[in-house]
Specification:
heterodimer; A: alpha/beta; 7-stranded mixed beta sheet; 5-stranded antiparallel beta sheet; 9 helices; 30% helix; 31% strand; B: alpha/beta; 5-stranded parallel beta sheet; 16% strand
Chain lengths: 280, 470
């Protein structure tokens, strides 16, 4: 069992949780993910590691309530425990000194997993610029944390309620326009956002890494549920990734596979809601 | 008394009933039938059956005990060499193992060795076991076993019996490997059989750590170093599914058999939404392949509500690698076998869902390296099969995590771990391996045999290490 040490609502329906998982924290690296299971009836959910602390043995996860399982997770409080917490999984991000600026782009809760990457790249001696996108100002997360580990933070909001009005791609364009020498972009967020960022950097030939979030079951390479086409090859995101060259990923294929269980997810959400009502 | 030429039949659930439930199909012998079947054994002076058993169960001896109605004695005999008899009695391909060599098989049907093993094991499982776990000596040497599938469980059981402290590291949340995620409930009950057998191993003093992905959480070198183990056994299986690399394999509705079966067996998707993991099967499913995994996937699809299920296999019936009893059960349940047929592409609709599979007819040519006749496409024979679910069951390859994170571990050309056939010794001192990670996908009992051989070799290695130290 893995105890929830702290829970915080970062914005409506977005939660951060600190989990006691010393074994995982000891080996975690930026870019890796974990799989958790809330209880015996639960499904296995992959979440990218948002932060880790080897000394205290804690792993930070950030998630948004989008379906039945995240609803159940959000219903837990500090002091409760998760049944399973497996990791660290996947390859770590490549952390090295670049010839130029490192730009991390986080959309929505995708900001969270860019944080340890930004921090590690900064510690490796890079100039790091973070671009953080949110629909509106009130759902922006982790701005202060990000400022502490980067040289510059650009915020975009879809409605212009804060920072640059528009999408994260507008901020990427802005950096290119002002002549920033960008050596690498790492983008994490909704698939449509990562696809847009890859399209935005392609004309300039800026190497662009995306962290994919396909449907997963085991997360250890044994089922291929998370397969994606990269270049001409089929890759398993859990063992070959989750990071891939954004200019080679088949994004439409990924989006289509992510919709596979949409109708059953609705059934399940309804099921959980009713269980919730019964309990009250 | 005249000797019956036939095995005593085992009662089964009626096909039309069982095709809609996940209850075990074969119901097992009752006491009188078991004793009667045991009486068919001739107790050969040189028993041929034993040479067909990869873990060398003393078959005539345990059958003699059943004949005497000494069932405790029978299971003790079996357990001397077999850690998972209730599993083996159910899933071994006996027709290619012990029963293949039974002398009665020359004139009629061999003795139902598997059924008798199952009978003795089930009787023992139904009884309460003593709860006090066996404990190794405080200064006992420690062995890490990576993977809790058949090879790891068998190796761990043998080592614990020899007095070592054994810890199994399992990546999933449940132990058992393919016994838990792969073989379906209707063939191998999880709570009643698999978990009970594993609990029995724990009572021998074996510790099982789940959620522990070796290679990520601990590398092999760390296990031998800071984690303080004296030897490591790698039994991680051949879990990485292969695809055919034909167009359309990433469409929605296309599963690897591993994913399909894991969702159903390990995650209990057949009880959705009481269990949260979903699994979709349409009206018409095609399973590509002809092994046990293909049969399991086909029969699972049927039970999940598919109205029509095809097995699409490129060779003929004679080459089907699946266990004979499962092929028979699948046919009785109405699975539609399309033999000498090979898919060439999967076609999708405008939403990216499978709608059809293009296939080509095959004919058999000359035998290939494996001794089986090579299937050759018949030109111009392409046709389309309307399906909305495709399950790929053409085999698995080795998982790369251990290989990637263990410097100095020699691999074969196919990416399997190179290990000595008799001892399981790898290129790294103190590191042994066995089961599918060495051989490629094979059977439960062969993996158990490899685990058992490795346990003997580890025992010898550790004794030598201890002698050097003292």
């Amino acid at each position: 069992m893995y105890e929830i040490l702290k829970k915080e609502e970062l914005s409506p329906h977005v939660y951060a949780m600190e989990i006691a998982a010393p074994r995982v924290a000891k080996k975690a690296e930026p870019g890796q993910f974990i799989i958790l299971r809330v209880n015996e009836e639960g499904e296995r959910i992959p979440l990218t590691i948002a932060d880790f602390n080897r000394e205290t043995g804690r792993i930070l996860i950030v998630f948004q309530v989008i379906g039945a399982s995240t609803m159940e997770l959000a219903a837990l409080e500090a002091g409760d425990s998760l049944l399973d917490f497996v990791g660290p999984l996947g390859h770590p991000s490549e952390i090295r000194k670049l010839d130029g600026t490192m730009v991390v782009v986080g959309g929505g809760i995708g900001v969270a997993p860019t944080y340890p990457i930004a921090r590690a790249m900064h510690e490796a001696g890079n100039k790091v610029i973070a671009i953080m996108g949110a629909k509106t100002k009130d759902i922006l997360i982790m701005e202060e944390e990000m400022k502490a580990v980067t040289d510059e933070v650009l915020v975009t909001t879809d409605d212009g309620s804060y920072g640059i009005k528009g999408f994260v791609t507008n901020a990427v364009e802005e950096l290119v326009r002002r002549g920033e020498k960008i050596a690498q972009v790492t983008a994490i967020g909704p698939v449509i956002m990562m696809k847009s960022v890859a399209e935005a950097t392609r004309p300039y030939g800026i190497p662009t890494v995306v962290s994919l979030n396909p449907i997963m079951v085991d997360g250890t390479g044994m089922c291929g549920g998370c397969r994606v086409t990269v270049g001409d090859e089929t890759k398993f995101a859990c063992v070959d990734g989750p990071e891939f060259d954004g200019h080679a990923v088949d994004f439409p294929g990924l989006m289509s596979r992510q919709r596979m269980y949409r109708d059953l997810e609705a059934v399940e959400k309804e099921h959980v809601c009713r269980i919730g009502l019964g309990r009250k | 008394m005249a000797l019956s030429l036939k095995k005593h039949p085992m009662p089964v659930q009626a096909p039309e009933v069982r095709a809609h439930n996940f209850e075990e199909v074969a119901l097992g012998y009752d006491e009188e039938t078991a004793v009667a079947e045991a009486e068919r054994c001739l107790h050969c002076k040189v028993p041929q059956c034993r040479k067909g058993c990869p873990v060398s169960v003393d078959i005539p001896a345990f059958i003699a005990k059943i004949k005497e109605r000494d069932y405790d004695g029978a299971i003790e005999k079996i357990k001397e060499t077999n850690s998972l008899p209730a599993v083996c009695g159910r899933v071994c391909p006996q027709e290619n193992q012990c029963e293949k060599y039974c002398i009665l098989g020359k004139k009629g049907e061999p003795v139902g060795i598997g059924r008798l093993e199952r009978f003795a094991a089930d009787r023992a499982l139904a009884k309460e076991m003593p709860d006090a776990p066996f404990a190794a000596a405080p200064d006992a040497q420690r062995v890490a076993v990576i993977g809790s599938g058949p090879s790891g469980l068998s190796c761990a059981g043998d080592l614990a019996k020899r007095g070592y402290k054994v810890t199994i590291f399992e990546a999933l949340h449940k132990a058992g490997g393919v016994l838990s995620y792969g073989i379906p409930e209707f063939r191998l009950p999880k709570d009643k059989v698999v978990q009970k057998e594993i609990e029995n191993l724990e009572k021998l003093g074996v510790t099982i750590e789940t959620d522990a992905v070796a290679g990520r959480l601990y590398t092999v070198d760390e296990l031998l170093g800071e984690e303080g183990f004296d030897a490591v056994f790698i039994g991680t299986g051949a879990g990485l599914p292969r695809f055919q690399n034909i167009p359309g394999e990433s469409l929605s509705g296309v599963y690897s058999a591993n994913e399909f079966l894991t969702r159903c067996n390990l995650m209990k998707a057949y009880r959705f939404p009481d269990y949260a993991t979903p699994l979709k099967v349409g009206k018409t499913a095609a399973i590509i392949g002809g092994g046990n995994v293909a049969m399991d996937a086909a029969r699972t699809a049927l039970r999940l509500g598919a109205e029509h299920v095809y097995i699409v296999y490129r060779r003929s019936e004679a080459e089907l690698p699946a266990r004979a009893e499962e092929v028979e059960h699948a046919k009785e349940e109405g699975i539609d076998f399309r033999l000498l047929t090979n898919p060439v592409a999967i076609e999708g609709d405008e939403n990216g869902w499978v709608k059809a599979m293009r296939c080509i007819r095959m004919e058999l040519g000359e035998p290939d390296a494996s001794g089986r006749r090579r299937p050759i496409p018949v030109e111009g024979s392409e046709f389309s099969l309307a399906v909305d679910t495709v399950i790929v069951a053409i085999g698995t390859g080795p998982n790369p995590i251990i290989a990637q994170t263990t410097p100095g571990l020699a691999l074969t050309k196919r990416g399997n771990i190179a290990a000595d056939e008799e001892t399981g010794a790898t290129s790294k001192p103190g590191v042994f391996a066995g089961g599918d990670i060495v051989t490629g996908a094979a059977t439960v009992i062969l993996a158990m045999g490899a685990g058992r051989k490795a346990a003997a070799a580890i025992d010898a290695y550790l004794k030598e290490k201890k002698a050097e130290r003292d």
